[in-house]
Structure formats: structure tokens, C-alpha cells
Amino acid sequence: HFSTGIKLSNKNVIIKNVTVIGGGIMGGGIAQVAAQTGHNVTLVDVSEDVLKNSKSKIETSLARVVKKLFGDNKEKGELFQKETMGRLNYRTSLVDSVNEADLVVEAVVENIDIKHKVFTQLDSVAPEHTIFASNTSSFLIKDMAKVTKRLDRFGGLHFFNPVTVMKLVEVIKMPETSQETHEALIKFGTTMGKTAVEAKDKDGFIVNRLLIPYLMDSVRMLERGDATARDIDTAMKLGSGHPMGPIELVDYIGLDTCKFALDGWHQKEPNNPTYRPIAMLDKLVSEGKLGVKTGAGFYEYKKK
Ligand code: 3HC
Residue ranges of the 3-hydroxyacyl-CoA dehydrogenase NAD binding domain (predicted)? Predict the structure, then answer.
């Protein structure tokens, strides 16, 4: 029942086998939803511990999805859970994880050197037909694609946290991305149950270009002492109908991710006041207070 207004031609690239690189919040979520929607998924991370953690997070989240989809129908729910888990493989070696991949979705940390390393390695081992996509929140797709020899088979697929719940995927086309690749990425996104929007390869695409400046302005408001964190959050939830207030959303996304985006854009446009650094954010990040995932950010969280 999900639809998109984007018209597709008949060219068909079938995406069945998907490799997701990076077992963090986003990588785990993308892997989970891809498996839920019938794809064979390989989730890759260099760390066994990270993979163990993502597997357990996927199990918990899948149980919520099953409850929602199947309610009291225990038998069907258990089958769905079993089949989904059966489609998920976990690997620590990147080289062995892409032999059969139709699509690779990169969701590693927002560090351009690490992303370059991943894509260079992938390009040398992935089959000819494999499409590469990045889930970057703040880099340009072309800045990653340039280290590969498959610009025509490279695009952006930007999902939102929590991937199981958020209904959008941004599909980013570079001028070099072939129409066939672009359409395959849109189709993959809609098969995952998301509504796809097309965005140009510009800083922040659509959502983050609008969302991050708003979130950062809310942190500046807090830093100036104009309102408390609770009041800023309550105000935007009740006054603007947002599901989360901006301060709690920064905690949810991760202070580090927000800072990466802000700093990257500040470097590009040092005179743009929208992107100027925020001492309060920098301090929390330097203290390791990255938000929900570390148990503290602007708020404190119970460790799970
Ligand atoms: N796995 C599975 N299901 C989940 C889930 C998860 N991790 N989290 C929530 N759900 C489901 C619940 O089962 C529930 O289903 P129901 O409505 O059928 O009962 C539903 O989602 C709502 O969950 P809750 O009742 O627990 O909580 P809320 O109603 O408060 O919703 C929220 C939680 C969906 C996270 C909501 O607060 C929200 O939409 N927040 C804003 C999130 C947002 O803006 N995300 C985008 C961030 S930007 C980004 O990701 C881009 C990056 O590049 C920075």
C-alpha cells in the first residue's frame, strides 16, 4: 500500500541479494527491513561485538514488528520471524560478503576516509553488476563514488531512524548515475515498504538540509539559556505537532552524527552562520555523551 509518484520505465534490475556494510543503528535497521521484505541480507561489520549487538537489537525490534503485523496470530508471526532471521547473515569480512550481492548499502560511520577505504575495497571484489549505494547523512555521493570505477552503478539511499518505522527513503542520483541504477534503487526502496523521494546530490539532500539546521538552532537556544531542554521539546511537540522535540531528537540521532554534518558543512561554507560550531554540542561530544546510544546526551537514559 506504499506508493510513490515517481514513474518507472520497464527496465528491470532485480535486487534480491543485499549486503549492508556497518552494524550500527542505521545498518542494522536497513538490514532488518530488507530481510523482512524478502531480500537475502548480509550484514557486515569489522567487529564481532557490534554484530552480536546488532543481531540482538534486530531480534527485539522484529518482535515488535511481528506483534504489530500479526497480533494474536502466533503461528504466522513465528513463521515471519523465523523466515526473516533466516534471511540475515552476519560477516566480519567485507571481501567474502559481496560475491553474490546485487546491491551494497554502505552505512558505516560518517568518516570520509573510512568510507573511501570501504568503497575502494568493495569495488575491487564486487561483481560487475553490483550497485553501490551510500546511506550517508551529510557527505555528497560523488565524493564517495569517485574512488570507484562504477559511477553509473552508484547512488544514494538515505533511510531514517528508526528504519522499521520511518516511511521515507531519499534516493539520490548523481549526473553519472544511470537511469537503470536509479530506478533499481527506487524500486528497492519501495519494495522495502518506503515512499521514495528523489533528491539531487546536494549537501543534506532534502531532509537533513532542513532538519539539521533546525536541530542545531534548538541547541543554540538551549546554550543561550532562552529555554530549558524540556520546554523546547514540549513546545515543538505540542506547538508544532512533531513526534519528538528537537533536543530529544538530537539525542536520538546521535550528537556525533549531528556534529559531523555541521562541521563538514562549516568547513565548506565557513561564513555561513547556519553551520557555525556550537560549544555546548562540542563539549558533550568530547565527553562521550552522544545521546541515547551512550546512555547520556542532553538527557540521561537508562542503559539497556
Ligand atoms: N522497531 C520496531 N518498531 C518500532 C521501533 C523499533 N525500533 N520503534 C518504534 N516502533 C513502533 C512501535 O511498535 C509502535 O507501533 P504501534 O504504533 O503500532 O504501536 C510505533 O513504532 C510507535 O512507537 P512508540 O509507541 O514506542 O513510540 P512513539 O509513538 O513515541 O514513536 C518514534 C517513536 C517513531 C521514534 C517517534 O517518536 C518519531 O517518529 N520520532 C521522530 C524520529 C525522526 O525524526 N527520525 C528521523 C531522524 S533523521 C535521520 O534518521 C537521518 C539521519 O541521516 C540523521
Answer: 17-201
Cα–Cα distance, 257 to 290 (Å, whole number): 9
Helices 246-253 & 229-240 angle (0-180, nearest 10): 110
**Does residue 249 contact residue 207 with C-beta atoms inside 8 Å?**
no
> Is the bond preceding 243 in cis, omega lying within 30 degrees of 0?
no
Is residue 198 annotated as involved in ligand binding? no
DSSP string of 119-160, one letter each residue:
HHHHHHHS-TT-EEEE--SSS-HHHHHTTSS-GGGEEEEE--
Domain boundaries, the chain: 17-200, 209-293
Q: Active site residue: 54, 158, 182, 218, which one?
A: 158
DSSP state of 93: -
Question: According to CATH, what is the number of the domain 17-200?
Answer: 3.40.50.720
pTM for this structure? 0.93
158 is catalytic: yes
Give the CATH architecture of domain 209-293: Orthogonal Bundle (1.10)
